[in-house]
Every structure is written in structure tokens, then in C-alpha cells.
Amino acid sequence: MRAFWKTIIVTLVAVAFTLFFAFIALDPYYYSSRPREPHPESGRIYSKRVKGTTGVADVYLTRVEKLPYDYVEWILGAYGALFITAWLLNQRWKVIKDRGEGLPKKLS
User: Fold this and answer.
1) What pTM does this model have?
2) What's the pLDDT score for residue 96?
3) With contact defined as beta carbons under 8 Å apart, do 83 and 11 qualify?
4) What pLDDT, on a 0 to 100 scale, did the predictor assign at position 7?
5) In this predicted model, what pLDDT tens digit does every residue of 63-105 receive, in sequence order?
């Protein structure tokens, strides 16, 4: 059962970090790959200011591409909820030990 609990905690933390870093990676990706003018034929008509490695630009996104920016509070809240849930479950189940636990005490 302990291995199952550890799997749950590690999975929650992995999903939280993946969600967080995927959200961070959106700006540079859109900066380098999206048009700087509206492109109605492809549906890229929604303007969004993004940061890239070389500066800031207004790019045009489709409605689906713009959704993460519209729900940024919910996405970051989900990240926080997953991480806090993993931490609380670990506090209860004690499957991932603190680094200091199990080390010998200092001799004085």
C-alpha cells in the first residue's frame, strides 16, 4: 500500500510541475511561431502580448490558443491545489521522508 501512496504523491507533483512549466513555455513558443498581423483565414485574430527570448511582441492567436491566458488564474490555482494536495497527503502518509530524517545525530 505504501508504494501506491508514494505513486499518488509523485504523480500529483509531476502533474503540477508539468502544468506549471507548460504554461511558462507558451509565451516563447507563441513568440517564435505566431504571426504578428491578424490572419483571418486561419482564425488567428485574437491579439496577445507575449515575451520571447529576444523581446516582447503582439502576436495573433486562435480562440483555442488564447484560452490558457483567459483562464490563467484557474490554471495556476490548479497547479497550487495539486502541489498542496500532494504535500498534505505526504504529511498524512509519511511516504517521502525529509532529507534530515534517518541521519545520525551529531556527537558533541
Assistant:
1) 0.77
2) 86
3) no
4) 95
5) 999 999 999 999 999 999 999 999 999 999 988 877 665 666 6
What average pLDDT does range 40-67 have in this prediction?
96
Can you tell me the distance from the alpha carbon of 34 to that of 72, in angstroms, rounded to the nearest whole number? 20
The beta strands (E) that lie in the chain are given as: 46-51, 56-61
Exposed/middle/buried for residue 69 (C-beta within 10 Å: 0-12, 13-18, 19+): middle
Q: Number of C-alpha atoms within 13 angstroms, CB side, residue 32?
A: 7
Q: How many CA atoms lie within 13 A of 75 on its CB side?
A: 15
- Asked whether 60 and 46 are in contact (CB, 8 A), the reply is yes
Residue 68, amino acid = P
Q: In whole angstroms, give the CA distance from residue 25 to residue 11.
A: 21
